[in-house]
Amino acid sequence: xxxxxxxxxxxxxxxxxxxxxxxxKQPAIREKADRVLVxxxxxxxxxxxxxxxxxxxxxxxxxxxEGHKSQEGDEKTPEGRxxxxxxxxxxxxxxxxxxxxxxEQDRKxxxxxxxxxxxxxxxxxxxxxIKWAGGFHTLYxxxxxxxxxxxxxxxxxxxxxxxxxxxxxxx
Length: 171
What we know:
Layout: H1 3-23, E1 35-39, E2 44-49, E3 52-58, E4 80-91, E5 94-99, H2 104-113, E6 122-124, E7 147-148, H3 151-160, E8 165-170
Parallel strand pairs: 1-8, 6-7
Antiparallel strand pairs: 1-2, 2-3, 4-5, 4-8, 5-6
């Protein structure tokens, strides 16, 4: 198969994927979430209300996703129980919800190693330079330790998840 043929097959498959993704419009979430669960190994995030799943999203993680974040620059997404404590409507990656990493234990662990624990871990949409990728952004882990979703998904999460919501990030 020559390169031109491969290119056109890739375009056709991509267009089919976009069509399928766009045709699966889900009904609006009418409740506020009271918990967010992230399953790093499955690249999935769930919004829950009274232990009932309201919505599940495919996500991208930090570029080095295995293990718990231990220091600034390790490109890991933290693991554990945190709070979504504030939001940024003018984030460089569309909108963002802040994860309360580092907690006291994270700081202590980093101090023992003589490193900075890092911070500014967010759930966020796509940076303008890659917003064209849409749902395909989940094909690789591209964040610096954050949890990436599409801009449309971020709009829904923004409306559904109030400040103060618990987020549990599991391996």
